[in-house]
Amino acid sequence: MGNVLVLVRHGQSVWNKKNLFTGWKDVGLTDEGEAEAHRAGQLLAKEGLSFDIAFTSKLERAQRTLAIILDELGQSGLETIEDKALNERDYGDLVGLDKDEARKKWGEEQVHIWRRSYDIPPPGGESLKDTAERVLPYFEAQIAPLVNAGKSVIVSAHGNSLRALVMRLDGLSTDEVTQLNLATGAPILYRLEADGTVVEKRDLVA
Question: In what order do the strands lie in the sheet with 53-56?
């Protein structure tokens, strides 16, 4: 069963739970995040999926999520490529701040602009556009050719790096992608033609 691409955002992290801007800060999963990763693996097993190769970021929360999923699939030894191109968006000066604290410091409207605009970065950080400009070339060079050649590929990454991929795969506008929210630990299954055209997309849910 080739030409399959699965995207999964890591399970809930410690800083997700605390409502902190995380970005490139390396934090682990909560117990709930681990449970979400197990459920994701079980959903993929129920689909009868197995993978030829896996990709993940350089951050522990995505790597741990992938490890749990592959364990559920009986594929713990699967070739896995880690690359910082798939890292979460860098939130710059917001990293480590409670989202409510950030609103008090910079104002509700300014923080909303940084979080939800396409091309306005927070101080010292990346916009979604900046994130897409490192994620998409990596996808086109390293991941898409494998899927187009008939491989089944899983990518375990982050809310914003995956939003960039979904924007490309679903043909979303910059306005549409800023409204997109990806749940933690929820696999998205794509089936593609050999030319990269999407023929099926499904959100896998329990």
Answer: 80-82, 53-56, 152-157, 4-9, 188-192, 198-203
